[in-house]
Amino acid sequence: MLRTVLFVVSLAACAISAAATLAGRHDLLPLVFWSGGMALAVLLERWRYRRRTAAAEGPWEATGERFVDPESGQAMQVLYNPRTGERRYEPAP
To answer: In this structure, how many other beta carbons lie within 10 angstroms of the beta carbon of residue 51?
Structure first.
């Protein structure tokens, strides 16, 4: 929600300041770059930090760790990939 609001506000500021700059208000040119940069940063941040799915293949080993997921209330187990060091969490059998 916050990302969407930030993106819309920065895009609107960029469009308004670009129109004002074209109309002769050249003192608003930095606002075009800053607000456009902010909109671009929000887009790139969403793309860069999207969730990756864990590969199902590979030597996954159960660590013996178990816990209850506070959001779902489901028992989870921890799996470990010794080749990459990655950990993943799956529902316990």
So the answer is: 5
Instruction: Report the DSSP pairing between strands 61-68 and 87-91.
Output: unpaired
Q: How many CA atoms lie within 13 A of 71 on its CB side?
A: 1
pLDDT tens digits, residue range 34-73? 999 999 999 888 776 655 555 566 788 999 999 999 988 9
Cα 15–19–22 angle (5° rounding)?
140
- C-alpha 3/C-alpha 8 separation (Å) is 9
Maximum alpha-carbon separation in the chain: 68
CA distance 78 to 61: 9
SS3 63: strand
